[in-house]
């Protein structure tokens, strides 16, 4: 205490996260008591940020993507959503936020960034796949497309489709790609491919 300057200095105070009420009490020689209070808010934490949709590693057929989530921070300032070279601000309602952003086909990284008014920042990411194209089935023999309809020899056909699950049947029975077909007569090979977004072969 400096009576001349009418000032005092406290010992170092240990603050906790959130509001801290500091009370100073002074007593003069006549026993009169004075009191003063101040509230200090300690905020050392970044916003608590969560993506709730789309699901992680989702595969979607979409022209644009609605990204949703939650953010908790009493001093939340802004949330942005970035996919590729495009960044849009999120609309924040209470602790919920949403943003709609155009997308291209392929594997995309969603980056969501939240900042508060004190400069704290939190970033979360999520990967999704955009697939708007039905798979194309290829039937290959000896490295070349198979187009023959009449043969005088056995054949072993490789059945495939990029980025899709392939189901094949020969004469109504399951057919394993690469199996030799040697039985005399007419045969029907049916192939269906389904990609991650649910598209089927045309």
Question: TL;DR of this structure?
Answer:
The protein has 202 residues and is mainly beta.
Describe the structure.
The chain is mainly beta. The protein has strands at 18-27, 33-42, 48-53, 59-60, 64-72, 76-83, 86-89, 91-93, 96-102, 106-116, 121-130, 137-141, 144-145, 155-156, 158-161, 164-170, 173-174, 180-181, 189-195. Strands 4-11-10-6-7 form a five-stranded mixed sheet, with no helix packed on it. The mean pLDDT is 93.
Task: Summarize the SSE layout with pairings.
Elements lengths: L17 E10 L5 E10 L5 E6 L5 E2 L3 E9 L3 E8 L2 E4 L1 E3 L2 E7 L3 E11 L4 E10 L6 E5 L2 E2 L9 E2 L1 E4 L2 E7 L2 E2 L5 E2 L7 E7 L7
Parallel strand pairs: 4-11
Antiparallel strand pairs: 1-2, 3-5, 5-9, 6-7, 6-10, 8-9, 10-11, 12-13, 12-15, 14-18, 16-17, 16-19
């Amino acid at each position: 205490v400096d009576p001349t300057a009418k000032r005092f200095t406290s010992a170092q105070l240990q603050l906790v996260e959130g509001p801290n009420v500091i009370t100073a009490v002074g007593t003069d020689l006549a026993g009169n008591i004075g009191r003063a209070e101040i509230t200090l808010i300690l905020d050392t934490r970044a916003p608590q940020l969560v993506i709730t949709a789309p699901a992680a590693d989702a595969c979607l057929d979409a022209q644009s993507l609605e990204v949703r989530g939650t953010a908790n921070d009493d001093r939340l300032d802004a949330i942005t959503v970035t996919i590729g070279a495009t960044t849009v601000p999120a609309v924040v309602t209470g602790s919920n936020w949403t943003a709609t952003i155009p997308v291209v086909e392929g594997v995309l990284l969603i980056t969501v960034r939240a900042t508060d008014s004190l400069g704290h920042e939190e970033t979360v990411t999520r990967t999704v796949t955009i697939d708007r194209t039905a798979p194309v089935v290829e039937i290959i023999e000896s490295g070349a497309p198979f187009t023959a309809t009449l043969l005088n020899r056995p054949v072993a056909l490789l059945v495939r489709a990029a980025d899709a699950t392939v189901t094949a049947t020969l004469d109504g029975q399951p057919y394993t790609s690469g199996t030799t077909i040697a039985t005399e007569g007419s045969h029907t090979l049916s192939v269906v491919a389904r990609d991650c977004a649910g598209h089927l072969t045309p």
